[in-house]
Amino acid sequence: MTAVDDRPMTTGIVKFFEEFVFPEGFKVELLRGEIVMMAGPDVAHNDIVEAVVDQIPRSRWRRLQTQDIAILEESSEPQPDLVVIERGAGPEHGRLMPSEVITMLVEVVSKTSVDRDYGVKRSIYAAAKVPAYLIIDPVMGQCVLLTEPTGRGEHADYRCQRLTKFGDITPLEPVGVELDTSEFAVYEKVRPHRYP
């Protein structure tokens, strides 16, 4: 039995989520027992993900998009914008990637995902002990790299946080890359927020 199969299914929501057929064209995630559906992303969002993928060397890293994550002890199956795993690690088949093999997760903030990306996902990824979580925020024109996960459940968080502005080099030590953000677009006509 794999780690993915060992996840608790006490509420039945995980089983329901995995068996339900959701409408096409929507991104669907299970976040702490809540099913969240979102419309497809903005073009600027996809351009940013593409730029990040282009800068992480394929020879050393698997750069997976639209990959669902399995997290032990959580009723969560998030689908980050980008999952970075050492080449050769993790399963070659299946819908779920165990969080234990992940080096870094990337979320590009959308106009409607600010609270999820900075709040519940930050906690979920820290609880999963994912070593690095990069939030790329076109609302505020900034990147937030979170490292050193600590804690459990809803109280989990990251000890270290580094904020850089778009246009500045963003060091991503966990994957050995200095991320060039000079071409990252900022969303227009969106109200600023208070995060991180």
Describe this structure in words.
The protein contains three helices and twelve strands. With 196 residues, it is α+β, with helices and mostly antiparallel strands. The chain has a single domain (4-180), classed as Alpha-Beta Complex (tt1808, chain A). The protein has a six-stranded mixed sheet with strand order 3-5-7-8-9-10. The chain has a two-stranded antiparallel sheet with strand order 1-2.
Could you name the key traits of this structure?
six-stranded mixed beta sheet; 3 helices; 17% helix; single chain; 196 residues; alpha+beta; tt1808, chain A
Describe how the helices and strands are arranged.
Layout: H1 13-19, E1 26-31, E2 34-39, H2 43-55, E3 61-64, E4 68-70, E5 82-86, E6 96-98, E7 102-108, H3 114-127, E8 132-137, E9 142-150, E10 157-165, E11 169-172, E12 177-180
Pfam families: Uma2
Domain Putative restriction endonuclease: 18-179
GO molecular function: endonuclease activity
Sequence of secondary-structure elements:
HEEHEEEEEHEEEEE
CATH architecture identity = Alpha-Beta Complex
* Number of E-state strands: 12
> Mind summarizing the main beta sheet?
6 strands, mixed
Protein name: Uma2 family endonuclease
Pfam family, one: Uma2
Organism: Streptomyces rubrogriseus
GO molecular function: endonuclease activity
Question: Brief overview, please?
Answer:
The protein is α+β, with helices and mostly antiparallel strands. The chain has three helices and twelve strands. The protein has a single domain (4-180), classed as tt1808, chain A, CATH 3.90.1570.
